[in-house]
Amino acid sequence: MNKRQTRLFALISTGIAVLVFLGLTVDSHRQFPTLTNAQSITPEVTRGKDVWHENNCINCHTLFGEGAYYAPDLTKITQHRGAPYLTAFLKDPSRFYDEQRHRRLMPNQNLSDQDIAALIAFLDWVANVDNQGWPPRPILVSGASIPGTSMSISQQDAASASQQLPPGARPVSGNEDPIALGEALFRSATPVCTACHSTAPGVNLAGPTLAGLATRAEQTLASPDYHGQADTVEDFIRESIIAPSEYLHPGDMYSAGGTSFMPTTYADALSDEQLDQLVAYLASFK
Hints:
This is Cytochrome c. By secondary structure, the chain is mainly α.
């Protein structure tokens, strides 16, 4: 190839690359309104964005994986926790976290009710942006210690993950034990149960610990304070999954105004067979 041919090759290649780049850029801008859920950007969402910036939330939290990584990524937080929980949390974070147990303290920003609602609207808009699966998983930061060990919950999960495939990636045979299948669902259902519940005694996160759940269920069923429809431990656990407000766990950090903070989407997200498997797993915590 002589100098003239080399020059032509370089110019043509550059021209093609530029055209491809411009085409991809134009196509990206064409898709932005749909991908970003632009039709849902209301004045309240815009105000919520301003609240996010005014209070420097990104100094601790991340959106779409971008931020300080000191506190959890909030890209899908409204899908994992819901507006009632977030409202109560933002009004008084100290009810949910304390520095001694969780090694971090969410400051109370003293937001007005209007600013809290706007911030949640903004985060809900973020949660519905088509982010092409990024970040690939919720970034959960608990810091709560496992009793009797020097490991945090997140460290324990990481150690377990290093020894075996994630539950959602394990091959499952039709003959696998229902409890094993329920454990896989516990760690892979959406919203993921481990985002709010631990299975370690005494370790309460956004939701109460599930250690000793079966024993507590028996006590609840025998209590005059229970007015639900369940007659057995298994029925009570199932009811708690699909209709969490039927019985409100003691403690105002778990509910507000007679409504549990637990999501109510599992009845639609899980099949009856999957619910049976999840109940079997949870009922094993005596």
